[in-house]
């Protein structure tokens, strides 16, 4: 392979590794995804381990995670007994999978905790001193702001996840805010 192609491949794979780490995934997982994304044919666990110079055990463990996230799929290769994988190349689908599996759950949990906090403050209000009632009122105002934020986040997630079509990014960039 030409040196410029190798350089582009290496920098893309490394960049996806760093990006994965930024979003709370392992760097190895990002590099595996990048490696699969940048090749036109499926790769075996051995191919991935050799390419990235990591253990086959690490490859296997991280590939299972990539499969769970919908970022890679096991594919059958005629005449081969090894496991082969290819990357999900629809990045919009990858984002949907992650948002659906992780962010939606976290937003729902945040809303539940905030609701429970409101209920606790309301039930304790009559037992509080006037000074503590003022503090509880302040807490409720802050919690109300947080609930509004997480309800907006929930609505945005539902909008993104509810859409089975790809977003028209060209149209999105034309939106003027403020």
UniProtKB/TrEMBL annotation:
Keywords: DNA-binding, Transcription, Transcription regulation. CDD domains: HTH_ARSR (cd00090). SUPFAM superfamilies: Winged helix' DNA-binding domain (SSF46785). Gene3D superfamilies: Winged helix-like DNA-binding domain superfamily/Winged helix DNA-binding domain. GO terms for molecular function: DNA binding. This is HTH-type transcriptional regulator. It comes from hydrothermal vent metagenome.
